[in-house]
Each structure stands twice: as C-alpha cells, then as structure tokens.
Design brief:
Elements: E1 11-15, H1 25-33, E2 46-52, H2 64-67, E3 68-69, E4 72-82, H3 86-100, H4 106-120, E5 127-136, E6 141-144, H5 149-163, E7 167-169
Antiparallel strand pairs: 1-6, 1-7, 2-4, 3-4, 4-5, 5-6
Length: 174
C-alpha cells in the first residue's frame, strides 16, 4: 500500500450510479482493460494514460490485494508523455542556418522539424507521472491526490472510460 503524501492538494469526486464492487475480480478486470501501455519506442509525440497498481508500475498485473486499502481501494494512474526537446530543435535549426548562411523559411523549418522528429524522437524517453487516488465504494467518492488540470482531466476521462460513470467534483455545499 502506498504511503500518503506529506504535502500537496487533494480533489474530491463523487459519482452517481452503480460501480462494480472493488472486492470482485470484475473490478480488476475493468482496470486491466484500460491498463497502461508503454510508448518508450514510439516514433511520434504521444501521450499514454492508463491504470497501474502501486505494486506494479508497468500495468501488467492487477491483483485485488495490490488495490486493497482497508475500507477503500488504491487506484494509480500512470501518464507518460513523449515530446521532442525544444533545445534540440533550436540547435539543429541554428546549425542549418549557419551552413546555409541565411535564415530558413517557414516551410524549411517545418521540414527540418519533421525530419528531426522522425530521426530523434524514437531515442527520447517519456516523462512519467504517477497519480494516486483513494476510492470509497460505499461513499461513492474518490480522493484524487493531484490538483493539476491535466491530471484531473486525464483521471476523470480514464475513470469514465473504465467504468462508464462520470465523476462530479465535490464542493463544500454538497
């Protein structure tokens, strides 16, 4: 079981409707359907979002005991992003302009960027983000241990794709 973070924000969500009981194998199967898939060897800018467990950050196994948190269930989402470093593009563009003796046109810059993406992006490693959440089935609520807009949107989208239940952000009046 992962330890709670010492700092940072939490966002509370709730859902309406019936969710698969987290003590059943069908719950782990639903997570496995939307498991994380690696993009390490991808040759294009990509984002991969999927479920993993605290015990297995690769997304290969979903044992119910890895999700158990007493009265709650630990969910962990992994987000990998692969982008070309801007400095690489600048260095190669500057070198091309120096050998040519003049600035590149917009079309030439675009062609240079496309060529560099094809050559260099397979060698770029993705940035990895792990986002934890605690799900209480009886309370129909989830605590997401991230407050960034991108993480919130990715989590609510993945939750909906997995369980076909939309999450509503809780507010103090509810």
């Amino acid at each position: 079981m992962p330890a709670l973070r010492r700092s940072g924000g939490v966002v509370a969500y709730f859902w309406q409707g019936k969710l698969i009981d987290p003590r059943e194998a069908a719950f782990a199967d639903a997570l496995a359907q939307r498991r994380f898939r690696t993009i390490e060897n991808a040759a294009s800018e990509e984002v991969s979002v999927g479920w993993v467990t605290p015990a297995d950050p690769t997304g290969d196994s979903f044992a119910l005991e890895d999700l158990d948190a007493g009265t709650a269930v630990w969910l962990r989402m992994r987000i990998d992003k692969k982008t070309m470093p801007v400095k690489w593009l600048q260095l190669h563009r500057d070198a091309a302009e120096k050998t040519r003796g003049k600035k590149l046109s917009a079309r030439e810059r675009r062609e240079l960027k496309d060529d560099l993406m094809e050559q260099l992006l397979p060698r770029v490693l993705p940035t990895i983000t792990m986002v934890d959440a605690l799900l209480w089935h009886e309370r129909r609520s989830v605590l997401l241990f991230a407050t960034g807009k991108g993480a919130r949107e990715a989590f609510t989208k993945l939750f909906f794709e997995t369980f076909t239940l939309p999450l509503d952000r809780a507010d103090p009046l509810q």
